[in-house]
Design goal:
Blueprint (H helix, E strand, L loop, with lengths): L1 E8 L6 H17 L4 E4 L13 E6 L4 H6 L7 E8 L3 H11 L3 E3 L3 E4 L13 E4 L12 H12 L6 E5 L5 H8 L4 E5 L3 H13 L6 E5 L9 E7 L2 H6 L1 H6 L1 E13 L3 H9 L6 E9 L2 E8 L1
Parallel strand pairs: 6-7, 8-9, 8-11, 9-10, 11-12
Antiparallel strand pairs: 1-3, 1-4, 2-3, 5-6, 12-14, 13-14
Length: 295
């Protein structure tokens, strides 16, 4: 049986943009533990407070304590109401019907297992990622912007690092487009297991690949490095990431807000003797993705 949880949290002193970021991070955590949907159900006049009322549809097997942990330490729950849903099967089917495939730049068709890929467009690379997994189902703007850039790259015979790989979607996309090798890196061992499953699901296991929890001295340099995480981890890893990109290689940084780009690039300039060149900056909603190189 499914249940509906209505959660209220303490958002006092947190502005709207910060609330949107927190809502996004909390939603990712909830989906990762198996929640079926996460929605902001505030009234039209309350949408400027994304954390005011959050509705979560979850399988009855998932305990409320697991849900609460997804909010920690980001914010504090002030109230949680629970409703049992009758005719749960209809809710599940309704949820499946609500999930739509994502098409990126006429290059990638991203969808869960139950959605059929279009037969008429054979140029689309099909990527199967099921909801309820690690971050990276293709829904988030930062993932979509990275995929847009991947669709433009000459990937044949190139080495790629997918840093903070989550579900592995970016590395898998590169493999689908002809990358010679892909290194999947994440400090979350659950995410690494999910990435491994997705590599097999998407028939990419024949591409040379490595799944690891950290970049090491033995890790070979890459033509392209993708890092779709958050501002502070990106800053902290600037020296390491710069050391692992080939001469004239490119780095793709995302998971950041538009007004954080300048601060982030300054960190990367401080950890290189070469001149940093910003090739392109994509923007979607409040998020940004930058493609950089060094000369």
């Amino acid at each position: 049986m499914l249940k509906k949880l209505i959660v209220q949290v303490n958002y006092q002193g947190v502005n709207r943009i910060e609330q949107e970021i927190l809502f996004s991070l909390i939603s990712d955590k909830l989906i990762a533990i198996g929640c079926l949907s996460v929605s902001n159900i505030s009234g039209d006049n309350e949408l400027h407070q994304p954390l005011q009322h959050i509705e979560i549809i979850v399988d009855g097997k998932i305990h409320n304590s697991q849900v609460k942990k997804c909010f920690e330490p980001l914010t504090r729950i002030t109230n949680l109401d629970e409703l049992r849903l009758i005719n749960s099967k209809n809710w599940v089917e309704s949820y499946k019907d609500s999930v739509k495939p994502i098409v990126i730049s006429n290059s990638f068709f991203i969808a869960p297992d139950w959605i059929k890929a279009p037969k008429e467009n054979k140029e689309l690379s099909v990527i199967r990622i099921n909801p309820g997994m690690a971050f990276g189902t293709g829904l988030h703007p930062t993932t979509q912007m990275c995929l847009q850039l991947i669709s433009r790259l000459p990937l044949s015979n190139k080495n790629v690092i997918d840093f903070g790989c989550g579900s592995g979607i970016l590395g898998i996309a590169c493999a689908k487009k002809g990358a010679k090798s892909v290194t999947f890196i994440d400090n979350d061992f659950v995410a690494l297991g999910i990435a491994r499953e997705n590599i097999i699901k998407n028939s990419c296991q024949e591409v040379e690949h490595k799944i690891t929890s950290a970049l090491t001295k033995s890790s070979k340099k890459a033509d392209y490095i993708f890092a779709n995480i958050l501002l502070n981890p990106l800053k902290n890893m600037a020296k390491t990431i710069n050391s692992k990109v080939k001469s004239r290689g490119q780095v793709f940084l995302s998971g950041i807000l538009i007004d954080q780009v300048e601060s982030l690039l300054k960190s990367y300039e401080e950890h290189t003797e070469k001149k940093l060149i910003k090739i392109v900056e994509l923007r979607m909603q409040q998020w940004a993705c930058v493609q950089i190189t060094y000369r």
